[in-house]
Batch of 2 targets.
Target 1
Amino acid sequence: MNWIGFVRLLRNIYGPGLPDLDAIQRQGLLAVKIGQVFALRIDFLDQEKCRHLANLYRNTVRTPSEEVRRLLKLYCGKDFLRHFIHIDDQALASASVGQVHRARTSTGDEVVIKLIKGDFKKNFVRDVRSIKRLFQTVIFFYPKLRSVADPVGILEHIEDYTLSELNLLNELRGQNILRNISLQHRDTYNLSRLRFARYYDELCSENVLVAEFVPGKTFDELLHEGKLDYEALLELFHIHGFYMFCVGTFHGDIHPGNVILSNGTICFVDTGAISRVGDKIRRGLFNFFKALALWDYGECARCLNSMSERELEGRSFEQFREKFIRLYADFTRSTVSQVSLTKKMMDTIKLGVHSGMEFEQGMFGIIKSLMYLDGMVLRCNPHAVLLHDMRRFIEETEQFVVKS
Ligand SMILES: Nc1ncnc2c1ncn2[C@@H]1O[C@H](COP(=O)(O)OP(=O)(O)O)[C@@H](O)[C@H]1O
Ligand SMILES: [Mg+2]
């Protein structure tokens, strides 16, 4: 994708009417990934557009079954197929890089086989390089863009997690990281509703994964059918909040298609990207959200300042604090549809940066997670006063944050 392609992509996304998803997919993997990021931006795109763009997470072009068999032979050799008595021709799901098929092993286990759909790496790396150059040129003429929107940072983030996703062994590693963390802490934090699928390590490689089939539906499917229970969503917050705030190592792509609700338990899939955040941001954000849940905006302002690499002092902090309190004037007891949490977070970061704060890069990973979660609540229970409902988790999480 060159700059003309990039402008075409933006016009497609921002233009009148709903974006043309086929056109985005024809532009290649980077365009799809950018489209997915825009699906989260309910702070400046209208909700219907975001919902439409969210289809880029699942309704993607499917690779036909003959091609799937050819790819499996190419990736793993003929012997691989001998491990299975049946492989479904119809894909269970197809996303931007992978396609998932149900299968049964020769020992009778119900599994899924996930494979990389094609050779994306070369074009993706080339497109990232050319768009990065474009952004650097724009920033040269408009330096403020770097601190407010940080397009190069976002692009690098997309590059990181997509390259990581293109090697399925990273997904296996991600599963092990998240599972080990849960085993380590299961006696001190309630993770009873979290489960992990078994992976068949000996059959997994860079291009193919074999894992236990987890019965149930993804949060995305349930939201689509209007059947996601708000309590299950709060439980996802509880579990993901543990990884983000208590540990600082968490699922880096927690969109609703990557979480399965299986007999009341929550199972993470697609763990190719694990995000990490330092202690300063992890603790600072927890304290920020705790104060927000208690509608204590003065304390929120102090917490945000504590997360900055360069803290504001004296008069400049006071000015920031006043503006912050004004920004949150409409927040107390408002529902997620009345005041968008995503928009508030973006405005908060903008206000902080304009006032002179600087935040660690890892911050974007957490913000992205929160945007996904906010988007899910908006679809599941638009009348929820989310921050108020989160109060129930404060005590358990705080005990952990203080100790760790
Ligand atoms: N272990 C599993 N058991 C059942 N369904 C699964 C499993 N893993 C993935 N899926 C289904 O396949 C879809 C795509 O899988 P995912 O790992 O997210 O791949 P992608 O990288 O293509 O997004 C999921 O949204 C889910 O519906
Ligand atoms: Mg996925």
Target 2
Amino acid sequence: MYILSKFQAKVFLLERKEFSVSLDLGLTKTKIQFVDGFFIFPDGQKITIDHIKKIIKKDTSCFSIENNDIIKLSLFSDDTNKYYKLMPTGIDTPPTLEISGIRMHVTKSMSAEEDTKKKISFVEPCFGYVLDTCTGLGYTAILASHTARQVFTYEIDENCVEVQKINPWSKELFNNPKIKMNIGDIFLEIKKLKNNFFDRIIHDPPRLTFATVLYSQGFYDELFRVLKHKGKIYHYTGHPGSKNRGVHLQDNVLKRMQRSGFKNLKKVFNGVSGEKI
Ligand SMILES: C[S@@+](CC[C@H](N)C(=O)[O-])C[C@H]1O[C@@H](n2cnc3c(N)ncnc32)[C@H](O)[C@@H]1O
């Protein structure tokens, strides 16, 4: 599938004849021909300058090229009553997932890639069995899998899995044997996991108001139970300066994690890190 955002579309506008541009949101480059007013793709599909201008105008969306036309990569689910969109963040940076207007990664102060590296840095060295509680686009699961023995990751929403399938940056979720993808509610699924099993846990839930149970004492008790002794955890809580995911949330999360038994708890970049001694 060929995918374009405004960042690649701007390259099309500058170029004539033959040029190279990314058709997978920055991962690789492909040659495009410009002949008689049409941009011609490797499979023979053609689009016009007007198509390119539309992509630049709709600057918070990604588009696929299908049947010589551009199709917005978004979906609405009647089941969840939510709108899902792959949202571009830069010329060669991974897109984020926007669910009804809420972005699933930090994208303003840094790229989703840097955001993911930061999260993992609090559980370094990231080795052994890793629990990634909330898959999203799979960036934490994928990066963790590069050093871990196995990553267990859980996604409650099948619509997010549909977005993963079209996102070139999520590909490894489907072809990396070290990643064990599960579709299910981690609040329930964690009860099936063994005591003292995981070396590392990365807990990156949606905002508190969208997933209250994933910030509950009962869930933290389960996270503590499945973490090995000497294991490390990072819990994303959100930006301390922001209205909804503020300093109080970080303090409350820290207190609850302490009650569950976690030690060496620290307020760190957008979250709380800790250990099981
Ligand atoms: C902030 S995103 C995670 C981003 C992820 N770390 C990444 O690298 O892309 C949160 C994700 O958790 C999912 N989610 C929400 N509640 C869940 C639950 N109870 N169990 C599993 N996944 C859940 C949401 O659908 C969303 O995709």
